[in-house]
Amino acid sequence: MTVQSALRRRGLLERLLATHSWLVYAFFYAPIAVLVVFSFNGGRQVSIWQGASLRWYRQMLQDAALLSALRNSLIVAVVSTIVATALGTATALAMERFRFRTQRVYEGLLYLPIIVPEVTLAAMMLVFFIQAFDYIGRITGTPPNLSLTTIILSHICFNISFVTVVVRARLAGLDPSLEEAAADLYANRWKAFRRVTLPLIMPGVLGGGLLALTMSLDDVVTTSFVSGPGSTTLPVYVFGLVKKGVTPVINAVSALMLLASMTLVFSSLLVQRGGSARKSKAREKERAS
């Protein structure tokens, strides 16, 4: 086999792989593109184009039930993200900086929300809340009901694992000598964490927080299990609309949810990539000096 024939075969193989990749992308993203395009359809028929219009976006903004679901989603997402990010960061620090006897067992339990199917986790959360409310009802006489609080607690439960994974990956590449240098300069643990460790792991913290926010805003299964009257979130509301039939309003809502999710995911990737780039530049400067 000559060199030219080998190069031709390699070029053909690369073109075939490129074509296959584009076909896979088209298979996954063409339905999403169609949904976004038809969210601007002026007619009532979902699959028949009748001219461009913002009619369904205006109707969406006038739907009181939808706006209430959106408000609930934002409340749940913001509160659960803040709490999960704080707890996940603390957990990552404990797992990466300290060693204790049951650490491996704790790691396994920590990653269960990522491994276990979501419907199983949702059923476990529901059973837990029912048992807890029954116990509280025996003491107070008035047991609480499923509400936004139960949704927030459930989202915190599975978001802690995702935040911990992201922050711990950031901590794994952090040079421990920086914290030791801060201690040598008479900084206590809190000051060393606030002035040295936290700024260095901030890209991971922000990335984990944005990931948790995305997971919370998009969750349907767990939320539908642990939600009560008046606590319907936007994904659950959209899922309920789909059961009645696909309408152009669903296309508009789904397009906005898709935009929000993509923005949060790309922001998380950019934050983490920016932190890695700054870290690489700092290492290059150290080597040069």
Notes on the structure:
The structure is a single chain. The chain is built from twelve helices and no strands. With 289 residues, it is an all-alpha fold. It has a domain of 183 residues: MetI-like fold (Orthogonal Bundle). The model has no long low-confidence stretch (mean pLDDT 81).
Quickly describe the structure:
The protein has 289 residues and is mainly α. 81% of the residues lie in helices and 0% in strands.
H/I helix tally? 12
State the share of residues found in helices, binned by percent: over 70%
Give the low-confidence spans: none
Q: SSE order in H/E notation?
A: HHHHHHHHHHHH
Beta fraction: under 5%
Q: How is the biggest beta sheet arranged?
A: none
Secondary structure: number of strands: 0
Rg over C-alpha atoms, rounded to the nearest angstrom: 24 Å
Q: How would you describe the shape?
A: globular
Helix and strand content put the structural class at mainly alpha
Output the CATH class name of the domain at 64-246.
Mainly Alpha
Say which CATH homologous superfamily of the domain at 64-246 is assigned. MetI-like
| Mean pLDDT value | 81
CATH topology of the domain at 64-246: MetI-like fold
Instruction: Tell me the distance between the termini.
Output: 51 Å
What CATH architecture label of the domain at 64-246 applies?
Orthogonal Bundle
